[in-house]
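Help needed: design a sequence for this.
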């Protein structure tokens, strides 16, 4: 219905979804953004070790067109708020047999590297794979990624039926890659894209291979790390009048006469609102984390769905030797199936975990570039997959040390040695992620994307309670920095439409408030 004054919107959580929603609403509504942490970002976070700040959450930035469009609609320019550099080398990959493979933004350079690595026939299969993943992405972008709440019927209506045949929703990623590539190392490399959604490549649909095209279209690094993105979004929101409050725990969402009416803070303060957007895991709402009055507003699937994976991480200032690291690096285990069986079926750590290492002080050719904020030591972030059991099992110091020893033993077999003094190293477990993100058990990506139905079972931005909306990686279109930002914009469109205002259209894929504590 039409209103004579701006609608009041309370946004819970200053993660990517909440920040994007606040920015998208900032010119149309009175927006108050509440974050229980001391800074914006959510999973986009940094760990301080001495004077160094090290990304200890998402480290890969893609799909910058999402943010170009978001900033433009808020009357700002993305390039005025962040400084980005496009990577030519997407990632460096290593195995225990000593083999290495770099992938590049330039398709022909990657094909040449694969030809040297696995033969010319595999290089041709790689070119075919990229054509297929590009077609997947272009087929699904509008009717799925940019849709507020897709379903199979709408997808069939909105996409070319012939192109949909190449999307392969009913085949597992591993099965499809086994047909695509002969070399098991290439299957393993491209199967890793399932973990971007916190899923097993043996259960996730082959459709997730479209991430290969997303990375091929551009991977950037940001000056100041990924936290610079959160700060930029916060700045634009505040410039447009959004009031941001940190160290503010929302204890309850007020529901009255069939609609959300505001929030109650842990301090007891009540904030009335015409709409509430929850940028937290949908399971937290479904499990009563914001009061029983709103728990049933979220589909039961959010409460009972299989969780995505969690992680065990080490953020450190250390010395890496024996292997020339790039900015992004992956060291694969010998038995990929066992690794995911451990994480998803046995709920345990893999004996030989695939390890991701982010080395922001490295140049693309593997040399250390410039002066690290850590002095002689370089900044490193190491991650291995873990089960999301942070609410059911307490990881002991012995278990953490054992996992680190296994990881380091694996890295040494791949040729890499990392040394860091104990006081320059910080570990995080599923317990830490479960505490930071309530309702998740430590799952970083919401529900696992296993089976073709999973993408349609993920909650949409609307709930069954009027005035209550969802945003973030646990809702459609899924996890990841750009996806969470898309969800926030979708939530904003829903709010504007329901308030009788003109909702902004989804982004096109082309390249004065106050702050209180």
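Sure. Designed sequence:
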């Amino acid at each position: 219905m039409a209103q004579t004054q701006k609608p009041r919107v309370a946004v819970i959580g200053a993660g990517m979804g909440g920040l994007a929603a606040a920015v998208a609403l900032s010119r149309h509504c009175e927006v108050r953004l509440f974050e229980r942490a001391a800074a914006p970002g959510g999973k986009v976070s940094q760990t301080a070790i001495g004077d160094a700040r090290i990304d200890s959450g998402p480290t890969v930035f893609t799909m910058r067109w999402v943010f170009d469009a978001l900033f433009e609609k808020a009357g700002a320019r993305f390039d005025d708020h962040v400084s980005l550099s496009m990577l030519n080398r997407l990632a460096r990959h290593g195995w225990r047999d000593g083999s290495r493979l770099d992938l590049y933004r330039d398709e022909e350079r990657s094909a040449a590297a694969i030809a040297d690595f696995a033969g010319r026939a595999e290089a041709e299969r790689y070119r075919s794979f990229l054509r297929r993943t590009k077609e997947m992405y272009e087929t699904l972008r509008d009717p799925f990624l940019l849709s507020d709440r897709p379903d199979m019927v709408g997808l069939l209506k909105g996409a070319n039926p012939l192109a949909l045949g190449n999307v392969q929703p009913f085949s597992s990623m591993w099965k499809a890659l086994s047909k695509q590539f002969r070399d098991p190392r290439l299957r393993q490399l491209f199967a890793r894209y399932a973990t971007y959604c916190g899923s097993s490549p043996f259960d996730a649909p082959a459709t997730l291979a479209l991430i290969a095209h997303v990375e091929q279209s551009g991977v950037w690094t940001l000056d100041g790390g990924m936290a610079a993105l959160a700060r930029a979004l916060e700045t634009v929101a505040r410039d447009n009048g959004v009031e941001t409050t940190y160290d503010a725990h929302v204890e309850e969402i007020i529901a009255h006469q069939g609609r959300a009416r505001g929030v109650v803070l842990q301090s007891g303060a009540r904030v009335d609102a015409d709409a509430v957007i929850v940028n937290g895991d949908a399971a937290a709402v479904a499990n009563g984390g914001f009061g029983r009055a709103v728990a049933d507003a979220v589909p039961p699937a959010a409460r009972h769905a299989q969780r995505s994976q969690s992680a065990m991480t080490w953020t450190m200032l250390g010395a890496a030797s024996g292997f020339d690291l790039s900015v992004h690096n992956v060291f694969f285990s010998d038995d990929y199936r066992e690794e995911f069986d451990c994480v998803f079926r046995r709920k345990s750590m893999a004996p030989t975990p695939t390890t991701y290492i982010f080395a922001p002080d490295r140049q693309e050719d593997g040399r250390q570039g410039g002066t690290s904020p850590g002095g002689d030591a370089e900044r490193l972030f190491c991650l291995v997959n873990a089960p999301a059991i942070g609410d059911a099992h307490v990881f002991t110091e012995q278990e953490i040390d054992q996992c680190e020893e296994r990881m380091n033993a694996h890295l040494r077999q791949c040729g890499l040695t990392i040394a860091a003094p104990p006081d320059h190293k910080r570990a995080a477990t599923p317990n830490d992620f479960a505490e930071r993100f309530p309702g998740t058990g430590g799952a970083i990506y919401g529900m696992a994307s296993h089976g073709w139905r999973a993408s349609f079972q993920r909650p949409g931005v609307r709930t069954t309670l009027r005035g209550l909306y969802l945003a973030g990686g646990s809702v459609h279109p899924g996890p990841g920095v750009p996806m969470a930002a898309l969800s926030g914009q979708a939530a904003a469109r829903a709010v504007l439409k329901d308030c009788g205002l003109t909702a902004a259209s989804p982004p096109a894929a082309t390249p004065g408030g106050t702050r209180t504590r």
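The chain has three domains: 8-44+60-82+225-305+447-516, 117-216, 309-436.
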